[in-house]
Design goal:
With 388 residues, the protein is α/β, with parallel strands linked by helices. The protein contains 14 helices and 12 strands. Strand 6, helix 9 and strand 7 form a beta-alpha-beta unit. Helix 4 packs parallel to helix 11, helix 5 packs across helix 10 and helix 12 packs parallel to helix 14. The chain is globular, with a radius of gyration of 21 Å. It starts with 7 loop residues before the first helix and ends with a helix. The structure holds 4'-deoxy-4'-aminopyridoxal-5'-phosphate.
């Protein structure tokens, strides 16, 4: 059997629940998709032009393993200006192929076989599989809509064992849209300190924070910074998903460990993409603000629609996802999503794709254009009405 040649860890992970659902969506070309976690806008012209100029100037060779020094400086300046946290561009920043690779490198660099990493769920679909592939064991910490998707510190503390290496956090969160308040981050950081754990903080949606300020975990203070790997990138806030630029910042020893893996497996991020990212970080603030306001309008429209439909939804404070409860319809999240697609041609993602605590919810991205969000909400309202 050829499949017996496939490694155990690979066999152990399920394919992405999102991808499986999107095979169905692909068969419905007239569907409105609220499924994909991707900005609807094309990358702003100035960022694209920076890549074009780099190509015209013949900047086509490998860069340093850590990434272009200009880009690492732009990341350091951005993080200092925006969140007041300092990283040394020469030793504490590594440019990665999106946050996806930053996550993979961070987990691989710290995980020995059988080590445990606590994953706050519902979560981005890749978290647990990445831990499993690294030989580790993902340990889920459930959050609940009834608690505004907050991290319960006592429940978190009970999950810590001698094998625990790190806690993986994501604020603002995909799929719930929750954003951890400062006190919650501080409590997690204290717990990590007491138990000598690392913190992996995925802040890819930091720029898409709608209510209040984003709390950047390593900006909380020396102690938090010393044990945090900050994972972030340009895919979402700057509408640059296809460019594949992310980064990880943290202690120089951890960055050096990740750089070893990166060197042997990836070499560096595509050079024109890195030049586009320099421009985006240096001069993209206005473009980002325009996109953030557009998402805010769509979020408000979607929240209004869920209220009218009678679907409870914790208001998303960040990212571009709403995660309403569909429990009152009597359907599972898979049934709801499949029937909504076949009966009304609207694609949303069943909540169980994000871990068991996501069951009873569906993820609706409000990254589509205002008109499409509007039309999708009208169709969904018709569907929910029929179910009642
Ligand atoms: N983290 C989270 C929370 C995400 O939602 C995503 C993309 N959906 C990623 C990481 C991966 O992002 P990138 O495109 O930068 O690899």
């Amino acid at each position: 059997m050829i499949s017996s040649h496939i490694a155990h860890a690979v066999r152990a992970i399920p394919p992405s629940g999102i991808r499986a659902f999107f095979d169905l969506v692909a068969a419905c070309p007239d569907a409105i998709s609220l499924g994909i976690g991707e900005p609807d806008s094309v990358t702003p012209w100035a960022f694209r032009e920076a890549a074009i100029h780099a190509i015209e100037r013949g900047r086509t060779a490998y860069t340093s393993t850590l990434g272009l020094l200009d880009l690492r400086r732009a990341i350091a300046d951005y993080l200092r200006g925006r969140f007041g946290v300092r990283f040394d561009p020469r030793r504490e920043i590594l440019v990665t192929v999106g946050v996806s690779q930053a996550l993979d490198l961070a987990v691989r660099a710290i995980t020995n076989p059988g080590d445990e990493i606590i994953v706050v769920e519902p979560s981005f679909v890749a978290y647990s599989p990445v831990v499993t592939l690294a030989g580790g064991r993902p340990v889920p910490l459930a959050t609940r809509a009834g608690e505004n998707w907050r991290v319960d510190i006592r429940r978190l503390a009970r999950l810590i064992t001698p094998r625990t290496r790190a806690i993986l956090l994501n604020s603002p969160c995909n799929p719930t849209g929750s954003a951890s308040p400062r006190e919650e981050m501080e409590a997690v950081a204290h717990l990590a300190q007491r138990n000598d754990l690392l913190l992996l903080s995925d802040e890819i949606y930091a720029e898409l924070t709608f209510d209040g300020e984003h709390t950047c975990l390593p900006a909380l203070g020396r102690a938090a910074r010393a044990r945090t790997l900050l994972l972030s990138g340009l895919s979402k806030g700057w509408a640059m998903t296809g460019w594949r630029v992310g980064y990880v910042c943290g202690h120089a020893a951890l960055i050096a460990a990740m750089a070893k893996i990166h060197q042997h497996t990836m070499m560096c991020v595509a050079t024109p993409s890195q030049w586009a990212a320099v421009e985006a970080l240096r001069a993209g603030e206005g473009e980002v603000a325009i996109m953030r306001e557009a998402y805010r309008e769509r979020r408000d429209r979607m929240m209004g629609a869920f209220r009218e439909m009678g679907l409870p939804c914790v208001p998303p404070r960040g990212a571009f996802y709403a995660f309403p409860s569909i429990a009152s319809t009597g359907l599972t999240s898979q049934e709801f999503a499949r029937r909504l697609l076949s009966e009304e041609r609207v694609a949303v993602v069943p909540g169980d794709a994000f871990g068991a605590p996501g069951e009873g919810h569906v993820r609706c991205a409000f990254a589509a254009s205002f008109d499409r969000v509007d039309e999708a909400m009208d169709r969904m309202a018709r569907f929910v009405e029929r179910l009642r």
